[in-house]
């Protein structure tokens, strides 16, 4: 399903494969036959599109029949009567505010415009909730577009105004001084919210052998217990929306005979505390990046 949702182009054969493989509808996939475009005012079309944008995003396939929520056959749309511009106009004029990065993908069977399938690819909107022309807000629930409750609309507005600090990437460097190895680690965070992030904390926790010395030039908080060592941000640097900054920098110093064992026996987690949420990222790249540097310099560890 993930690969289908990632696509931005479709061929005739891929549409037929969706049917032959009996692809099921879901919270992210909807199949509509040609009659779904017969509503001249477009309110049903925009209702479904806005519901996807107010939820997790997804795709609507116009021109595919479904039976019991399973793709079952073709239901061609006359692209002369209902062209791409007509469909786009029905969506944009009936939904407020505009959904950014929405994509309409036409597929012409046998290069015949009267045998058209439209795929509307809708992103999860960062500016939800979007209101439909009938003055209602919709969301996806199972296989349907359903009206949002008042508290859901309110919560959606609050999320739009929030900041959201997430792990972006890390930079790992290694250098050797006589019989010691220095690992320099920089952790970058990004604000995926719509407001300036001013209340958050990033914590890097190392579980396993503590056969290293940690140093830092910044005023970070260090915690050393029997089972783990952690280092955390202290001074909070404001992060603007879509801005990525180096938020946590530190060095690990090893005797060169101990780093290989560290890579084998230790675990490094990242935890990000936002206002009201806690997210632990176990599958980050820090330890893997250290292992790659070790593999590139095997003579340093003999």
TrEMBL record:
Keyword Transcription regulation: no
Superkingdom per UniProt: Bacteria
Alphabetical keyword list: ATP-binding, Nucleotide-binding
InterPro entries named in the record: Schlafen_AlbA_2_dom, Schlafen_AlbA_2_dom_sf
GO molecular function: ATP binding
Domain Schlafen AlbA-2: 25-148
Pfam family, one: SLFN_AlbA_2
Alphabetical list of PANTHER family matching this protein: GLPR-RELATED TRANSCRIPTIONAL REPRESSOR (PTHR30595), SCHLAFEN ALBA-2 DOMAIN-CONTAINING PROTEIN (PTHR30595:SF6)
Name of this protein: ATP-binding protein
Organism: Flavobacterium pectinovorum
């Amino acid at each position: 399903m993930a690969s289908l949702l990632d696509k931005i182009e479709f061929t005739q054969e891929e549409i037929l494969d969706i049917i032959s493989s009996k692809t099921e509808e879901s919270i992210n996939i909807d199949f509509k036959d040609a009659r779904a475009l017969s509503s001249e005012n477009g309110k049903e079309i925009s209702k479904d599109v806005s519901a996807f944008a107010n939820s997790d995003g997804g795709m609507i396939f116009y021109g595919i029949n479904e039976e019991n929520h399973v793709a079952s056959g073709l239901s061609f749309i006359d692209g002369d009567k209902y062209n791409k511009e007509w469909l786009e106009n029905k969506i944009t004029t009936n939904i407020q505010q505009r959904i950014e990065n929405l994509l309409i993908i036409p597929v012409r069977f046998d290069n015949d415009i009267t045998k058209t399938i439209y795929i509307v690819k809708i992103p999860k909107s960062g500016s939800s909730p979007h209101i439909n022309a009938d003055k209602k807000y919709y969301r996806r629930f199972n296989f349907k577009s359903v009206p949002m409750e008042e508290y859901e609309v309110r919560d959606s507005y609050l999320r739009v105004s929030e900041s959201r600090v997430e792990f972006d990437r890390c930079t790992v460097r290694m250098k050797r001084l006589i019989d010691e190895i220095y690992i320099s680690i920089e952790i970058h965070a990004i604000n995926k919210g719509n407001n300036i992030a001013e209340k958050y904390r990033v914590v890097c926790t190392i579980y396993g052998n503590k056969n290293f010395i940690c140093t830092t030039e910044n005023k970070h908080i260090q915690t050393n217990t029997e089972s783990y060592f952690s280092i955390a941000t202290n001074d909070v640097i404001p992060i603007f929306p879509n801005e990525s900054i180096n938020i946590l920098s530190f060095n690990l110093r090893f005797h060169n005979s101990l780093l290989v064992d560290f890579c084998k026996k230790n675990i490094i987690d990242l935890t990000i505390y936002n206002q009201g949420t806690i997210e632990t990222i176990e599958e980050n790249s820090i330890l893997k990046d250290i292992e790659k540097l070790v593999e590139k310099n095997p003579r340093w560890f003999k």
